[in-house]
Design a protein that fits this description.
The protein is mainly α and about 130 residues long. The chain has one domain. The chain is built from 4 helices and 2 strands, in the order ααβααβ. It has a two-stranded antiparallel sheet with strand order 1-2. Helix 1 runs antiparallel to helix 2 and helix 3 packs antiparallel against helix 4.
Length: about 130
Protein backbone atom coordinates (compact mmCIF):
# COMPACT_ATOMS: atom_id res chain seq x y z
CA UNK A 1 0.00 0.00 0.00
CA UNK A 2 2.73 2.43 0.99
CA UNK A 3 4.68 1.65 -2.19
CA UNK A 4 1.71 2.81 -4.32
CA UNK A 5 1.62 6.16 -2.50
CA UNK A 6 5.33 6.72 -3.10
CA UNK A 7 5.01 5.71 -6.76
CA UNK A 8 1.99 8.00 -7.27
CA UNK A 9 3.89 10.87 -5.64
CA UNK A 10 6.94 10.32 -7.84
CA UNK A 11 4.89 10.04 -11.04
CA UNK A 12 2.84 13.14 -10.17
CA UNK A 13 6.01 15.13 -9.44
CA UNK A 14 7.45 14.14 -12.81
CA UNK A 15 4.11 15.00 -14.43
CA UNK A 16 4.10 18.48 -12.81
CA UNK A 17 7.69 19.19 -13.84
CA UNK A 18 7.17 18.17 -17.47
CA UNK A 19 4.03 20.13 -18.26
CA UNK A 20 1.32 19.38 -15.73
CA UNK A 21 1.80 22.65 -13.86
CA UNK A 22 1.45 24.78 -16.99
CA UNK A 23 -1.62 22.84 -18.04
CA UNK A 24 -3.24 23.24 -14.61
CA UNK A 25 -2.45 26.96 -14.48
CA UNK A 26 -4.05 27.41 -17.89
CA UNK A 27 -7.20 25.63 -16.70
CA UNK A 28 -7.32 27.72 -13.50
CA UNK A 29 -7.01 30.92 -15.51
CA UNK A 30 -9.75 29.79 -17.90
CA UNK A 31 -11.95 28.85 -14.93
CA UNK A 32 -11.47 32.26 -13.32
CA UNK A 33 -12.35 34.01 -16.58
CA UNK A 34 -15.49 31.88 -17.05
CA UNK A 35 -16.57 32.50 -13.45
CA UNK A 36 -16.59 36.28 -13.94
CA UNK A 37 -19.99 35.95 -15.57
CA UNK A 38 -22.89 34.26 -13.80
CA UNK A 39 -23.80 32.27 -16.90
CA UNK A 40 -20.24 30.96 -17.25
CA UNK A 41 -19.92 29.61 -13.69
CA UNK A 42 -20.81 25.98 -14.61
CA UNK A 43 -18.15 26.01 -17.34
CA UNK A 44 -15.67 27.62 -14.95
CA UNK A 45 -16.23 24.89 -12.39
CA UNK A 46 -15.52 22.27 -15.04
CA UNK A 47 -12.29 24.10 -15.89
CA UNK A 48 -11.29 23.80 -12.22
CA UNK A 49 -12.07 20.06 -12.38
CA UNK A 50 -9.79 19.76 -15.42
CA UNK A 51 -7.11 21.74 -13.58
CA UNK A 52 -7.31 19.29 -10.68
CA UNK A 53 -6.80 16.27 -12.86
CA UNK A 54 -4.15 18.06 -14.96
CA UNK A 55 -2.14 18.82 -11.85
CA UNK A 56 -1.90 15.29 -10.48
CA UNK A 57 -3.63 12.62 -12.58
CA UNK A 58 -1.90 9.57 -11.11
CA UNK A 59 -4.05 7.90 -8.49
CA UNK A 60 -7.28 9.55 -9.61
CA UNK A 61 -10.22 8.09 -11.48
CA UNK A 62 -13.15 9.64 -13.34
CA UNK A 63 -16.61 8.44 -12.39
CA UNK A 64 -19.72 9.60 -14.24
CA UNK A 65 -22.85 10.14 -12.21
CA UNK A 66 -26.31 10.42 -13.69
CA UNK A 67 -27.16 14.08 -13.17
CA UNK A 68 -29.96 14.41 -15.68
CA UNK A 69 -30.80 16.28 -18.82
CA UNK A 70 -29.00 19.47 -17.74
CA UNK A 71 -25.60 17.79 -17.71
CA UNK A 72 -26.33 16.09 -21.02
CA UNK A 73 -27.21 19.41 -22.69
CA UNK A 74 -24.20 21.16 -21.18
CA UNK A 75 -21.95 18.31 -22.39
CA UNK A 76 -23.34 18.71 -25.93
CA UNK A 77 -22.71 22.47 -25.81
CA UNK A 78 -19.24 21.93 -24.34
CA UNK A 79 -18.46 19.33 -27.01
CA UNK A 80 -19.44 21.68 -29.82
CA UNK A 81 -17.58 24.72 -28.46
CA UNK A 82 -14.31 23.40 -27.11
CA UNK A 83 -14.51 19.84 -25.85
CA UNK A 84 -13.58 17.99 -29.02
CA UNK A 85 -10.40 20.07 -29.56
CA UNK A 86 -9.22 19.49 -25.99
CA UNK A 87 -10.03 15.78 -26.10
CA UNK A 88 -8.39 15.33 -29.49
CA UNK A 89 -5.21 17.12 -28.38
CA UNK A 90 -4.91 15.02 -25.23
CA UNK A 91 -5.67 11.81 -27.14
CA UNK A 92 -2.96 12.58 -29.70
CA UNK A 93 -0.44 13.23 -26.92
CA UNK A 94 -1.50 9.96 -25.29
CA UNK A 95 -0.99 8.03 -28.54
CA UNK A 96 2.44 9.57 -29.08
CA UNK A 97 3.54 8.71 -25.54
CA UNK A 98 2.18 5.15 -25.76
CA UNK A 99 4.38 4.45 -28.77
CA UNK A 100 7.34 4.18 -26.39
CA UNK A 101 7.23 1.71 -23.54
CA UNK A 102 8.47 4.22 -20.98
CA UNK A 103 5.76 6.73 -21.96
CA UNK A 104 2.78 4.39 -21.46
CA UNK A 105 1.94 5.55 -17.89
CA UNK A 106 1.87 9.18 -19.05
CA UNK A 107 -0.06 8.29 -22.18
CA UNK A 108 -2.75 6.62 -20.09
CA UNK A 109 -3.09 9.80 -18.03
CA UNK A 110 -3.56 11.86 -21.20
CA UNK A 111 -6.35 9.46 -22.21
CA UNK A 112 -7.95 10.03 -18.81
CA UNK A 113 -7.76 13.80 -19.27
CA UNK A 114 -9.13 13.47 -22.82
CA UNK A 115 -12.12 11.56 -21.48
CA UNK A 116 -13.02 14.21 -18.94
CA UNK A 117 -12.26 17.01 -21.42
CA UNK A 118 -14.77 15.45 -23.80
CA UNK A 119 -17.64 15.26 -21.30
CA UNK A 120 -16.87 17.12 -18.03
CA UNK A 121 -20.42 17.66 -16.80
CA UNK A 122 -21.49 14.82 -14.53
CA UNK A 123 -17.90 13.64 -14.09
CA UNK A 124 -16.51 13.29 -10.59
CA UNK A 125 -12.77 13.05 -9.92
CA UNK A 126 -12.04 10.56 -7.14
CA UNK A 127 -9.00 9.00 -5.55
CA UNK A 128 -8.41 5.48 -6.93
CA UNK A 129 -8.78 2.64 -4.47
CA UNK A 130 -5.70 0.41 -4.44
CA UNK A 131 -6.33 -3.12 -3.24
Amino acid sequence: MEEWKILRLLLNLLWIIFGGLLSALGWVLAGCLWCITVIGIPVGLQCFKLASISLNPFGKEIVYEDTGVGSFLLNILWLLISGWELALGNAILGIILCITIIGIPWGKQYFKIAKVALMPFGAVVRREQVL
